[in-house]
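Most newcomers find our protein records easier to grasp once they have seen one. Sequence and backbone structure share a record, each on its own labelled line. Nothing more is needed to start thinking about how sequence determines fold. As an example, a complete record with its sequence and its structure tokens follows.
=====
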Amino acid sequence: MGEKELYAIGEIPPLGYVPKKMHAYVIHPEHHGPPLQSMKPEVVDVPDIGPDEVLVQVVTAGVNFNGVWASLGQPASPTRFHKHPFHIAGSDAAGVIWKLGSAAKSATYPWKVGDEVLIHCGMTCGQCPYCNGGDPMLCREQKIWGYESPYGSFAQFTKVQVQQLLPKPANLTWEESGCYMLVHATAWRMLYGHPPHTLQPEMNVLVWGGSGGLGSMATQIVRAAGANAIAVVSNEERGKWCLDLGAKAYINRKNFNCWGQLPPVSDQAAYGAYVKEVRKFGAAIWEITGKGVDPDIVFEHPGAQTFPVSCFVANRGGMVVFCAGTTGFNLSFDASYVWMRQKRIQGSHFATLYQADAANKAIMDGRVKPAMSEVFEWERIPEAHDRMMNNVHPSGNMALMVQAPRRGLKSLADIGN
């Protein structure tokens, strides 16, 4: 393939040659709305990289809810964060290193042009005390690549910090490799990153949205630790998916009516009816764990619709850990159940490089699978996000084809260079 200014989707330039232009799905702040409306294919300049950055040719990508938020501009337009005139979403990718900045190096992985990599989405300053001996996710400059930065994975090329790179599992296809890192590393930190409430054998873990991307990975992490995952799902088919992934059992939330904001505690009739329904849900948990045995960890991310219940059913001294609010950000709970039973409510955001690397090794050695469900071609990237927004997406993790010419390939050699 010769050198030229722009290559078609699926057309691979000579290794290391950086064209001037690239195809991308672009979101403009004046066009925010549903993904089918706001994500538009355009030709834009390939971004320049800084000394500690890497240019990666994107082979495949993944679908996450922050792509929906970016499309809608809710709770805020991502252009407010990065001040760029447009936004390219996408916070998961598998690809090939195409160019290294002059100072881009890693003591763990001696990267070079042509290496096959995954990208984790945690960006940090690399200089502060949190980044050097502390928790990098507490860095004041911490950002999520592809959401709080302008160049995500829905383009032929993206730029990232060198510390965002991890090795692509050689045994996985490109599409399997590109679909899991954000949710997998997020789940890993939620379950292992907040001592002393860390996952241990025989623990009971209630997993909301058990068949979704986050839930599919959490269920497998719990199983691999010798603990018990109890998946909450919306139908029997999704429940069976969770059992196949290793859940001990599942609960169909449609059988209960205790969702939404907590009624006023002062309204005895409404509050009493609500608690009665919550106790029915708790009894369903006890049918799995044993009478009086509540979840040690509640793995939360729906937010407004489920949070009050999570705080009720968590064990005394247990933890409700949450990373999102996909049904709403205004969370409510009965504080007396939390303080009197000494429960912990813990926010959790993505993961450190150390945690992402540990999570990736669990994939590489087969303890956890990517849980890939459906693969979408380049032209269907907005559709995949529209389906996620409307909660009609398949179980597990969706994969997106970017530069991969066809499915089932595993290496740079396979894709034609």
User: Anything to note?
Assistant: Residues 21-162+172-180+370-401 form a domain with the Quinone Oxidoreductase; Chain A, domain 1 fold (CATH 3.90.180.10). The longest strand covers residues 53-62. The mean pLDDT is 96.
